[in-house]
Design a protein that fits this description.
- With about 350 residues, the chain is an alpha/beta fold.
- It has an 11-stranded mixed beta sheet.
- Helix 2 packs parallel to helix 3 and helix 4 packs across helix 6.
- It is globular, with a radius of gyration of 20 Å.
């Protein structure tokens, strides 16, 4: 089914859908070699948690859907915060007849089967988990902060989830393709086929590594595979059909979340943003969440992120970060006119 440009725009600008990307902590137990995050901010403050609950409460009456995506850092390091907010969101949505969906982007080192079950029961329906190859290769790039390996623990957690067969939340295994791990990913695909082909909760997505800056031990740009598109497509052919991740067909799903008017990143310190891969870009700080649930917006910056959607610029709607103009003012001297909404 094809969609018109107008339908894409209406879906992305609608006020009936609220999407919150929450960072309950910006610390991480991993030190992936190509990571772009700086881990400066710690756990989410109590006034920010209060503000999120107030925001949901204030907006719920006008919503058809509420979607909460948990990001980090490693979000499961702040498990109690996730349970607190997710429980409140579920209870509020049920009371108002609003559909709740949720996702967690996690390295899965702390994703026990008990946690998977508890979070699934609170409306989390997708767990996105990154793997960089089979054990030998994965453990060269996705390591603990203390330098130890991670694959065995992650795979144990996945096996435990698989063995319990509880709930229908999807474990989306995101395979990172680099210029070094093609052979390893082929072996991993065979392992995934053997272990999870008969479990409808497991899906696979191949993602080419990209360079988002940061201070990891090696530059992500050095890992980009020039033959990535072809190799990615080939890896997908190795997977059993039921394991392949199928994107939603609704027009809102094809527009980057950062280009949607009612999609907000709320960082651990309450800063508002639009893009999870531009966390260190000053243009991505668009305001502050207040404890009463109101948003103090830098409206000029906010509009730059959704301008491609307003104009119907499909390329900009796919990645508004790439469409942002260079900001002329020095960040330290810029006067921010805030508007509270």
């Amino acid at each position: 089914m094809s969609w018109s440009l107008t339908e894409y725009q209406v879906g992305a600008l609608s006020s009936s859908a609220l999407h919150l990307i929450l960072l309950p902590t910006e610390k991480c137990n991993f030190r992936c070699s190509y990571c772009y995050e700086d881990f400066v901010a710690g756990a989410m403050r109590s006034d920010v948690i209060q503000g999120i609950r107030a925001l949901i409460d204030a907006r719920i009456g006008g919503l058809e859907t509420l979607s909460i995506s948990w990001f980090g850092g490693e979000p499961l390091l702040a498990y109690k915060t996730i349970i607190d907010i997710q429980t409140f969101a579920q209870e509020t949505c049920r009371a108002h007849g609003v559909t709740l969906t949720g996702s967690v982007t996690s390295n899965a080192y702390l994703l026990s089967s008990d946690r998977h079950e508890e979070l699934s029961g609170l409306g989390i329906n997708i767990f996105q988990i990154s793997l960089d190859g089979d054990e030998r290769v994965h453990d060269t790039t996705r390591i603990l902060a203390n330098g130890k390996s991670t694959f065995a623990k992650i795979w144990f957690n996945l096996e435990e989830i698989h063995s319990r067969s509880i709930g229908d939340a999807v474990c989306l295994l995101r395979l990172h393709l680099t210029n070094r791990n093609f052979d390893s990913l082929q072996r991993l695909c065979e392992k995934i086929n053997a272990c999870y082909a008969n479990d409808q909760r497991f899906r696979v997505l191949v993602k080419l590594i990209d360079d988002y800056g940061g201070s990891g031990s090696e530059r992500a740009s050095d890992l980009i595979d020039p033959n990535g598109e072809e190799r990615s497509a080939y890896l997908m052919t190795l997977l059993k059909p039921q394991l392949k991740w199928q994107q939603e067909t609704h027009p809102i799903s094809t527009v980057c979340y950062a280009a949607r008017a009612n999609s907000w990143i709320i960082r651990a310190d309450g800063r508002l943003g639009k893009c999870t891969v531009a966390l260190t870009d000053e243009r991505n700080t668009i305001g502050q969440l207040l404890p009463n649930g109101e948003l103090a917006l830098d409206e000029e910056r906010w509009r730059l992120w959704i301008e491609p959607t307003i104009k119907g610029d499909l390329k900009g709607m796919a990645c508004p970060w790439q469409a942002l103009p260079v900001e002329q003012e020095a960040a330290s001297g810029r006067k921010i006119p805030l508007r509270v909404i």
